[in-house]
Amino acid sequence: MVESLLTPAELNQLGLVIAERLALQPLLVDCVELAPLLSVSVETVKRYTAKGQIPCVRIGRRVLYQPEAVLAALAEATVNERRVADE
């Protein structure tokens, strides 16, 4: 069983803070702008993109991200990993 480091109330509060920050962000961002929103490196964003772990939009040669969609994908992956660990 995977033990959560945050309580449900703390996760909810974190979600509200992230939502507030995202509301101030542009609709699409590049990997340099996305990395600090996720608290990861640019290389991690590129690696997640290459593996298909986060959604992106390709416009010509540019790879752009919708922060809300990326967070939703990561949250869903986390939930799925917990389900597998609990089985």
Structure in words:
The chain has 87 residues and is mainly alpha-helical. Helix content is 61%, strand content 7%. The chain is built from 4 helices and 2 strands. Strands 1-2 form a two-stranded antiparallel ribbon. Strand 1 and strand 2 form a beta hairpin. Helix 2 (31-38) packs across helix 3 (42-50). The chain is globular, with a radius of gyration of 14 Å. The mean pLDDT is 86.
What is the element layout, followed by pairings?
Blueprint: H1 8-23, H2 31-38, H3 42-50, E1 57-59, E2 62-64, H4 67-86
Antiparallel strand pairs: 1-2
Low-confidence stretches: none
- Main sheet overview: 2 strands, antiparallel
Shape, principal axes of CA atoms: globular
Average pLDDT for all residues: 86
Strand content: 5-15%
Number of helical runs?
A: 4
Radius of gyration: 14 Å
- Please estimate the helix content: 55-70%
**How many strand elements?**
2
Strand order of the largest sheet: 1-2
Which structural class should the secondary elements be placed in? mainly alpha
Q: Tell me the distance between the termini.
A: 8 Å
| Helix-strand sequence | HHHEEH
